[in-house]
Design brief:
With 235 residues, the chain is of the alpha+beta class. It has one domain: Jelly Rolls (Sandwich). The protein has four helices and twelve strands; from the N terminus they run ααββββββαββββαββ. The strands form two sheets. A seven-stranded mixed beta sheet has the order 1-4-11-6-7-9-8. The chain has a five-stranded antiparallel beta sheet with strand order 2-3-12-5-10. The chain is globular and about 40 Å long. 43% of the residues are buried.
Length: 235
């Protein structure tokens, strides 16, 4: 599985309409397309893709059943690893599952990809990354990843290694699977501090942002949305 595909897995129509109505926004048809919003939709081999759409205000919504896929876009060149803020909501999602193990699901994840290796990267890790890069084609994969997740049981460590990313991705659960449904929840994370804590060195340049969902193993339904992703100064 591709590095960022794994890390992002690193989301029915009525529920998605409920998201738009809860925002008090115009219908989804008034929103730009994913591509016009700068997002690229990507699929995982052998998994039914989720259905993504852009929302007004630079947001995305996702829905699906027994599905998984992700959208990604590049970070503007020169963007320092400061703080990242957003709001997200889950109306339907998978049950709590231990995200330290393979074969588990999460409603949403936001992965931040970096262009540099973590310290102490091994030849085996480089080889695994090269294999993933060969499968990714023209999409240049990041060499290290921070993954912020809505899912899990809450019994996982505060920060732990992704079971899919060959040691190059670190997961931090922000909202467990039993977090309140149908509410917009605000997040703020310090990207630079989190990379230093996860990998023990100064962070390399930022490369891309990935929003993903993965509910195929639990055969769950998912309806969720993310809005307002932006880098802000850390104060």
């Amino acid at each position: 599985m591709l590095l960022l595909a794994a890390s992002a897995g690193l989301l029915p129509i009525v529920a998605a309409s409920g998201v738009a109505q809860a925002q008090g926004q115009v219908p989804a048809s008034a929103a730009p397309s994913l591509e016009a919003s700068g997002w690229t939709h990507a699929e995982w081999h052998g998994i039914r893709p989720a259905r993504w759409r852009a929302l007004p205000g630079d947001g995305v919504a996702v829905e699906g059943s027994s599905a998984g896929s992700f959208v990604w876009r590049r970070v503007p060149p020169g963007q320092p690893p400061t703080c990242l803020t957003w709001r997200w909501r889950v109306d339907e999602g998978p049950p709590p599952m231990d995200l330290t193990r393979r074969g588990t699901d999460r409603a949403l994840s936001i992965a931040v990809g970096f262009s540099g290796w973590p310290p102490g990267v091994t030849a085996w890790q480089r080889a695994q990354h090269a294999i993933a890069q060969g499968q990714a084609g023209a999409h240049v994969l990041p060499r290290s990843v921070l993954i912020y997740t809505w899912g899990g049981t809450g019994r996982e460590p505060p920060v732990f290694t992704s079971p899919y990313a060959s040691g190059l991705g670190k997961i931090r659960i922000l909202r467990t699977a039993d977090a309140p449904r149908g509410l917009w929840l605000e997040e703020r994370v310090d990207i630079g501090a989190d990379w230093r804590a996860a990998f023990g060195a100064e962070p390399p340049p930022l490369q891309e942002i990935v929003i993903g969902t993965d509910v195929d193993d639990s055969r769950s339904r998912v309806s969720a949305a993310v809005q307002g992703l932006r880098f802000v100064p850390c104060r």
